[in-house]
Every structure is written in C-alpha cells, then in structure tokens.
Amino acid sequence: MTTKMIVACIDGSELGDAVVDHAIWLANSSQSPLQFLHTIEHSHQSEHINREGNLTPNMKEHLLDELSDEERLESKKLIAEGKTILDAAKQKAQQAGLTNITAKQRHGSLPEALVDIESDASLVILGAKGENHQGDKQGLGSQLEESIRAIHTPVFIVKRDFSQPKKMLFAYNGSPTSSKALKLLAEGQLCSPSLDVHVVAVKANIDDAKKLIDEASIVLSKSKLNVSTRALQGEVIEQLTAYQQENDIDITCMGAFSHGKVHGFFFGSFTTRMLLESSTSFLLIR
User: Fold this and answer.
1) pLDDT of residue 39
2) pTM, whole model, 2 decimals?
3) pLDDT tens digit string along 138-148?
4) CATH 3.40.50.620 domain position(s) in the chain
5) Which CATH class is domain 5-43+77-156?
6) Stretch 60-71: mean pLDDT
7) pLDDT tens per residue, range 232-245
8) What's residue 257's pLDDT?
9) Beta bridge pairs of residue 157
10) CATH label, 164-285, candidates 1.10.1040.10, 2.20.25.90, 2.60.40.3880, 3.40.50.620
11) CA neighbor of 285 nearest in space, from 160, 195, 173, 194
12) In which order are the strands placed within the sheet that holds 281-285?
C-alpha cells in the first residue's frame, strides 16, 4: 500500500521558509514522503488596452495578439519563479536528510489543486499568509479558509518562523470534529511522542468542562503521549489564547469549521477568530 505524503504549499511569501522548515520537521517526525506544491493562478491584465472609442477589426486582432504574447511571457516568468522556489525547498529538505521528496507545479487556484491531490495526502501544510499579504501582521491569506474548507485532510497552519516545537495544546469541546481529532491523537497520528500535549476544555460551566476532560482522559489513557489536562471556565477564545501564552504553546490542535459557510458569514467563524488572535501554529482537523 502506498504511503500517503505530506504536502507543503509554498510561494514567495515571507512565511515560505517557515513552511519548508515545518514540513521537513513533520516529514522527519512521521517518516512520510514529502511533496512541495507551488500553484500558478493567472490574473493577467494588459497595461496597453486602448479604452478610447470602438475598436476596428484590425485593432481587435492586434490587441488579441498583444494580450496573447503578454500572457505567454507572464506565464513563463511565473513558471520560472515557481521552479526556483521549488528547487530551493527540495535542496533544503535533502540537506536535512530527507530522501523521499517530490516537487510539483500546477496551474489554477490552490483550493482546486488540493482537491485533486487530497486522496494522496496525509497532511497539508499552509502558511497563514500568502504572497499577497506581505507585512500584514494581523491578516490571513485570502485563500486560506477556502483551502481548508476544500478538503477533509488535516491541515497544518504555519504562523511564525520555525523553532523545534515542544508543546501542543489540544482544544477539546466534544464536537464531532473534536472527537475525531481526539481519536487520531490517541492513535498517535497527529503529533510526535516528543511533544507535551496539553488537553484543555473551556465551558461557561466548569463542571461541563471537567466532564469533557474526563472523556478525553479516558480516550488518551492508553496512548504513549505525555498528557496534561485542564478544565477552564469562561469565554473560549479568551481562555485558550491566555493558556497558549501562559504555557508557551507552540502548536494548537482543534477541529475546524464545524459550521457551514453561511453560519460563518453571519456569526463569524470560531476557527478564523482563533487563527487571527493566536500566535501559535495550528493543526486543524476537518
């Protein structure tokens, strides 16, 4: 049976190197094949379009030729830039001792590419901000939510430069996606045994939070993970982000986008708010 691969999506963004570094660490930890993916989404706009008056047939033909030539040049440039990015990532992974590495370049949007390769992927790694969000400390990439929603494979979101992760917070709320994540965690599929796992439940009623912790403790009791637990009372995002900071958490693992897009539009997505307000990297389970 073919081993599924870790797919690291890279571009020219400021988090590109961090995505590569996290991908190397995750591939080494899981002994998984690693694929670097670069997508080219064309958005060509000619700088020479004549907007004055009606175009004659000859002018239209000349304009179409001009656009075609410009698009070909832009495509060649984007392909060359992407190949440079992929080659550098592959070389870095080889220098780190990895051998099962591939690089792929695709035309089209990132969500489309992820849907096509999902069946071969065990984990997808994305930077929180893409190339169009350089220097935007608070923003998230424009395609991030769409990419996460497009697939049901676990997604690792890189939010900062790489340093060897030591602690992972697992936010458990008893939802179907959270229960799925708990099962995967107990089976050793979500993190390296070297990580300290902090299981945290937050509820308005502390007794409800304690019940969730008891559930999680039973499931994790036979795992080989180093687990500590904490029941907290209060507003969920406020309590989780405070816990992250107080305990130097490196990675936050949780279920993602359990509600539909319409619910998120009207009420705001809990997942998106957590991504915006936290400084840790994230492991999201759909």
Assistant:
1) 93
2) 0.85
3) 557 778 888 98
4) 5-43+77-156, 164-285
5) alpha beta
6) 62
7) 999 999 999 999 99
8) 67
9) 126, 282
10) 3.40.50.620
11) 173
12) 101-107, 34-40, 5-9, 121-127, 155-158, 281-285, 251-255, 167-171, 196-203, 226-233
